[in-house]
From TrEMBL:
Transmembrane parts of this sequence: none
SUPFAM superfamilies named in the record: DAK1/DegV-like
Record's keyword terms, sorted: Lipid-binding
Protein name: EDD domain protein
GO MF assignments: lipid binding
Key word Nucleus present: no
Protein backbone atom coordinates (compact mmCIF):
# COMPACT_ATOMS: atom_id res chain seq x y z
CA UNK A 1 0.00 0.00 0.00
CA UNK A 2 1.38 3.42 -0.96
CA UNK A 3 1.33 6.42 1.38
CA UNK A 4 1.39 10.19 0.83
CA UNK A 5 2.01 12.99 3.29
CA UNK A 6 0.52 16.14 1.80
CA UNK A 7 0.49 19.69 3.16
CA UNK A 8 -0.41 23.06 1.80
CA UNK A 9 2.43 25.54 1.34
CA UNK A 10 1.99 27.11 4.78
CA UNK A 11 4.23 24.15 5.63
CA UNK A 12 7.72 25.28 4.68
CA UNK A 13 9.13 21.83 3.94
CA UNK A 14 10.60 21.86 0.47
CA UNK A 15 12.34 18.83 -0.99
CA UNK A 16 11.42 16.65 2.00
CA UNK A 17 12.05 12.96 1.31
CA UNK A 18 10.17 10.63 3.70
CA UNK A 19 12.13 7.70 5.08
CA UNK A 20 9.18 5.35 5.61
CA UNK A 21 8.76 2.81 2.77
CA UNK A 22 6.42 3.53 -0.15
CA UNK A 23 5.85 7.10 1.06
CA UNK A 24 5.96 10.40 -0.81
CA UNK A 25 5.64 14.03 0.28
CA UNK A 26 3.83 16.65 -1.80
CA UNK A 27 2.56 20.16 -1.10
CA UNK A 28 -0.31 22.20 -2.52
CA UNK A 29 0.68 25.83 -3.16
CA UNK A 30 -1.40 28.71 -1.88
CA UNK A 31 -1.49 31.94 -3.86
CA UNK A 32 -0.85 35.51 -2.74
CA UNK A 33 -2.56 38.31 -4.64
CA UNK A 34 -0.85 41.72 -4.62
CA UNK A 35 -2.41 44.59 -6.58
CA UNK A 36 -3.90 42.18 -9.10
CA UNK A 37 -0.73 40.12 -9.51
CA UNK A 38 -0.80 36.49 -8.40
CA UNK A 39 2.22 34.85 -6.78
CA UNK A 40 2.13 31.04 -6.54
CA UNK A 41 3.79 29.74 -3.39
CA UNK A 42 5.82 26.96 -4.97
CA UNK A 43 9.51 26.16 -5.41
CA UNK A 44 9.96 28.81 -8.10
CA UNK A 45 8.62 31.74 -6.05
CA UNK A 46 10.98 34.66 -5.47
CA UNK A 47 10.03 35.30 -1.83
CA UNK A 48 12.11 38.49 -1.58
CA UNK A 49 10.33 39.98 -4.60
CA UNK A 50 6.95 39.01 -3.16
CA UNK A 51 7.80 40.70 0.14
CA UNK A 52 8.98 43.82 -1.65
CA UNK A 53 5.75 44.15 -3.61
CA UNK A 54 3.55 43.45 -0.58
CA UNK A 55 5.40 46.12 1.41
CA UNK A 56 5.05 48.66 -1.40
CA UNK A 57 1.31 48.07 -1.82
CA UNK A 58 -0.78 50.36 0.39
CA UNK A 59 -3.99 48.32 0.19
CA UNK A 60 -4.47 44.91 1.73
CA UNK A 61 -3.14 41.96 -0.20
CA UNK A 62 -4.86 38.59 -0.01
CA UNK A 63 -4.18 34.89 -0.19
CA UNK A 64 -6.08 32.10 -1.93
CA UNK A 65 -6.11 28.46 -0.94
CA UNK A 66 -5.39 25.48 -3.22
CA UNK A 67 -8.46 24.55 -5.25
CA UNK A 68 -10.54 21.45 -4.69
CA UNK A 69 -9.15 20.08 -7.96
CA UNK A 70 -5.54 20.64 -6.88
CA UNK A 71 -6.14 18.82 -3.61
CA UNK A 72 -7.98 16.00 -5.41
CA UNK A 73 -5.09 15.43 -7.83
CA UNK A 74 -2.70 15.09 -4.90
CA UNK A 75 -5.05 12.75 -3.04
CA UNK A 76 -5.06 10.39 -6.02
CA UNK A 77 -1.28 9.92 -5.67
CA UNK A 78 -1.46 7.16 -3.01
CA UNK A 79 -3.70 4.60 -1.36
CA UNK A 80 -3.28 6.14 2.10
CA UNK A 81 -3.14 9.92 2.43
CA UNK A 82 -2.47 12.14 5.45
CA UNK A 83 -3.10 15.80 4.58
CA UNK A 84 -2.18 18.73 6.83
CA UNK A 85 -3.56 22.23 6.31
CA UNK A 86 -3.06 25.72 7.64
CA UNK A 87 -5.54 26.68 10.36
CA UNK A 88 -9.10 26.48 9.09
CA UNK A 89 -9.63 29.93 10.63
CA UNK A 90 -6.91 31.48 8.49
CA UNK A 91 -7.75 30.00 5.10
CA UNK A 92 -10.25 27.93 3.14
CA UNK A 93 -7.54 25.32 2.53
CA UNK A 94 -8.98 22.85 5.06
CA UNK A 95 -12.49 23.16 3.63
CA UNK A 96 -11.22 22.69 0.07
CA UNK A 97 -9.27 19.61 1.16
CA UNK A 98 -12.39 18.13 2.80
CA UNK A 99 -14.37 18.66 -0.39
CA UNK A 100 -11.59 17.06 -2.43
CA UNK A 101 -11.46 14.08 -0.08
CA UNK A 102 -15.20 13.48 -0.49
CA UNK A 103 -14.89 13.72 -4.25
CA UNK A 104 -11.97 11.27 -4.47
CA UNK A 105 -13.62 8.79 -2.12
CA UNK A 106 -16.71 8.80 -4.32
CA UNK A 107 -14.43 7.70 -7.16
CA UNK A 108 -12.67 5.04 -5.09
CA UNK A 109 -14.07 4.13 -1.68
CA UNK A 110 -11.07 1.87 -0.96
CA UNK A 111 -8.72 4.82 -0.49
CA UNK A 112 -7.94 6.24 2.95
CA UNK A 113 -7.73 10.03 3.26
CA UNK A 114 -7.39 11.88 6.56
CA UNK A 115 -7.14 15.67 6.92
CA UNK A 116 -5.53 17.40 9.88
CA UNK A 117 -6.46 21.00 10.70
CA UNK A 118 -3.14 22.14 12.16
CA UNK A 119 -4.72 25.21 13.81
CA UNK A 120 -1.46 26.92 12.93
CA UNK A 121 0.98 27.78 10.14
CA UNK A 122 4.66 27.19 9.56
CA UNK A 123 6.70 25.20 12.06
CA UNK A 124 3.82 23.23 13.55
CA UNK A 125 2.90 21.81 10.14
CA UNK A 126 6.49 20.76 9.55
CA UNK A 127 6.53 18.99 12.90
CA UNK A 128 3.32 17.12 12.03
CA UNK A 129 4.43 16.12 8.53
CA UNK A 130 7.78 14.77 9.71
CA UNK A 131 6.15 13.00 12.66
CA UNK A 132 3.85 11.06 10.32
CA UNK A 133 6.93 9.74 8.54
CA UNK A 134 8.81 8.97 11.75
CA UNK A 135 5.89 7.14 13.29
CA UNK A 136 5.44 4.97 10.21
CA UNK A 137 9.15 4.26 10.06
CA UNK A 138 9.15 3.19 13.71
CA UNK A 139 5.85 1.28 13.40
CA UNK A 140 5.85 -0.28 9.91
CA UNK A 141 2.84 -2.46 10.70
CA UNK A 142 0.67 0.39 12.00
CA UNK A 143 -2.79 0.64 10.49
CA UNK A 144 -4.08 3.81 8.87
CA UNK A 145 -6.30 4.45 11.90
CA UNK A 146 -3.35 4.06 14.25
CA UNK A 147 -1.31 6.57 12.24
CA UNK A 148 -4.14 9.10 12.21
CA UNK A 149 -4.79 8.66 15.94
CA UNK A 150 -1.10 9.29 16.65
CA UNK A 151 -0.91 12.43 14.53
CA UNK A 152 -4.07 13.81 16.17
CA UNK A 153 -2.41 13.32 19.56
CA UNK A 154 0.70 15.13 18.31
CA UNK A 155 -1.40 18.00 16.94
CA UNK A 156 -3.05 18.45 20.33
CA UNK A 157 0.32 18.37 22.10
CA UNK A 158 2.12 20.91 19.90
CA UNK A 159 1.88 24.62 19.31
CA UNK A 160 3.15 27.53 17.24
CA UNK A 161 4.62 30.87 18.26
CA UNK A 162 5.18 33.94 16.08
CA UNK A 163 7.97 36.39 16.89
CA UNK A 164 7.18 39.46 14.84
CA UNK A 165 9.00 42.72 14.16
CA UNK A 166 6.64 44.14 11.51
CA UNK A 167 2.85 44.14 11.53
CA UNK A 168 1.68 45.94 8.39
CA UNK A 169 0.29 42.90 6.55
CA UNK A 170 -1.43 41.57 9.66
CA UNK A 171 -3.16 44.86 10.35
CA UNK A 172 -4.11 45.34 6.68
CA UNK A 173 -5.66 41.87 6.65
CA UNK A 174 -7.46 42.34 9.97
CA UNK A 175 -5.35 39.69 11.74
CA UNK A 176 -4.17 42.22 14.37
CA UNK A 177 -5.84 45.38 15.77
CA UNK A 178 -4.61 48.39 13.76
CA UNK A 179 -3.81 50.47 16.83
CA UNK A 180 -1.72 47.69 18.39
CA UNK A 181 0.17 47.11 15.14
CA UNK A 182 0.81 50.82 14.54
CA UNK A 183 2.06 51.34 18.10
CA UNK A 184 4.33 48.29 17.96
CA UNK A 185 5.79 49.43 14.63
CA UNK A 186 6.40 52.95 15.92
CA UNK A 187 8.10 51.81 19.11
CA UNK A 188 10.00 49.01 17.33
CA UNK A 189 8.58 46.47 19.75
CA UNK A 190 8.85 42.76 19.02
CA UNK A 191 5.64 40.88 19.70
CA UNK A 192 5.40 37.24 20.65
CA UNK A 193 2.07 35.75 19.65
CA UNK A 194 0.29 32.52 18.95
CA UNK A 195 -2.59 31.50 16.70
CA UNK A 196 -5.99 32.20 18.25
CA UNK A 197 -9.15 30.19 17.65
CA UNK A 198 -10.55 33.15 15.67
CA UNK A 199 -7.73 33.15 13.12
CA UNK A 200 -5.94 36.20 14.53
CA UNK A 201 -2.60 36.60 16.29
CA UNK A 202 -3.11 36.32 20.04
CA UNK A 203 -0.43 38.39 21.75
CA UNK A 204 1.58 36.53 24.39
CA UNK A 205 3.68 39.54 25.26
CA UNK A 206 5.79 42.44 23.91
CA UNK A 207 9.58 42.63 24.13
CA UNK A 208 11.92 45.57 23.70
CA UNK A 209 14.86 43.45 22.57
CA UNK A 210 15.57 40.14 20.92
CA UNK A 211 17.08 38.83 24.16
CA UNK A 212 13.87 39.62 26.05
CA UNK A 213 11.81 38.05 23.27
CA UNK A 214 13.83 34.84 23.47
CA UNK A 215 13.35 34.77 27.25
CA UNK A 216 9.60 34.97 26.69
CA UNK A 217 9.76 32.13 24.16
CA UNK A 218 11.66 29.91 26.59
CA UNK A 219 9.26 30.78 29.41
CA UNK A 220 6.26 30.00 27.20
CA UNK A 221 7.73 26.67 26.14
CA UNK A 222 8.35 25.74 29.78
CA UNK A 223 4.80 26.76 30.73
CA UNK A 224 3.49 24.54 27.93
CA UNK A 225 5.37 21.58 29.38
CA UNK A 226 8.01 21.35 26.64
CA UNK A 227 10.73 18.91 27.68
CA UNK A 228 13.05 18.62 24.71
CA UNK A 229 11.04 17.39 21.72
CA UNK A 230 11.37 18.58 18.13
CA UNK A 231 11.43 22.32 17.37
CA UNK A 232 11.05 23.91 13.93
CA UNK A 233 12.16 27.51 13.52
CA UNK A 234 11.12 29.19 10.28
CA UNK A 235 12.57 32.59 9.48
CA UNK A 236 11.96 35.43 7.02
CA UNK A 237 15.53 36.17 5.86
CA UNK A 238 16.68 36.11 9.49
CA UNK A 239 18.73 32.94 9.83
CA UNK A 240 21.07 34.55 12.35
CA UNK A 241 18.23 35.14 14.82
CA UNK A 242 16.97 31.59 14.24
CA UNK A 243 20.42 30.23 15.06
CA UNK A 244 20.62 32.38 18.19
CA UNK A 245 17.24 31.07 19.31
CA UNK A 246 18.43 27.53 18.63
CA UNK A 247 21.41 28.14 20.92
CA UNK A 248 19.10 29.55 23.60
CA UNK A 249 16.86 26.47 23.39
CA UNK A 250 19.85 24.15 23.64
CA UNK A 251 21.01 26.00 26.76
CA UNK A 252 17.90 24.71 28.55
CA UNK A 253 17.33 21.49 26.60
CA UNK A 254 20.67 20.22 25.23
CA UNK A 255 19.06 17.26 23.47
CA UNK A 256 16.33 19.28 21.72
CA UNK A 257 16.16 18.54 18.00
CA UNK A 258 16.00 21.96 16.33
CA UNK A 259 15.46 22.42 12.59
CA UNK A 260 15.84 25.82 10.91
CA UNK A 261 14.40 26.63 7.52
CA UNK A 262 13.38 29.69 5.49
CA UNK A 263 9.75 30.70 5.16
CA UNK A 264 8.00 30.23 1.86
CA UNK A 265 5.70 32.86 0.42
CA UNK A 266 2.62 32.39 2.59
CA UNK A 267 4.50 32.32 5.89
CA UNK A 268 6.67 35.27 4.82
CA UNK A 269 3.45 37.14 4.07
CA UNK A 270 2.21 36.61 7.63
CA UNK A 271 5.49 36.75 9.60
CA UNK A 272 6.90 39.68 7.56
CA UNK A 273 10.45 41.02 7.59
CA UNK A 274 12.77 39.33 10.13
CA UNK A 275 9.88 37.30 11.59
CA UNK A 276 10.25 33.87 13.17
CA UNK A 277 7.67 31.09 13.39
CA UNK A 278 8.41 28.46 16.01
CA UNK A 279 6.61 25.11 16.14
CA UNK A 280 7.26 22.60 18.90
CA UNK A 281 5.83 19.55 20.62
CA UNK A 282 6.29 18.11 24.06
Amino acid sequence: MSWAIIADSSCNLRGFQPQAPDTIYRFAPLKINVAGEEFIDDDSLDVAELNRKVSAEESASSSACPSVGEWADLFRSADNVIAITISANLSGSYEAAVMARDMVLEEDADRNIFIVNSRAAGGKLELLAVEVDRYRLAHPDATFNEVTAHICDVEQASTVLFLLSSYENLTKAGRMPKMAGALANKLKIRILGTASSEGTIKVVGPARSQRKAFEKIIATMKADGYSGGPVYIDHVFNERAAQELEARIHADWPDAEVTIMPCGGLCSYYAEEDGLIIGYGW
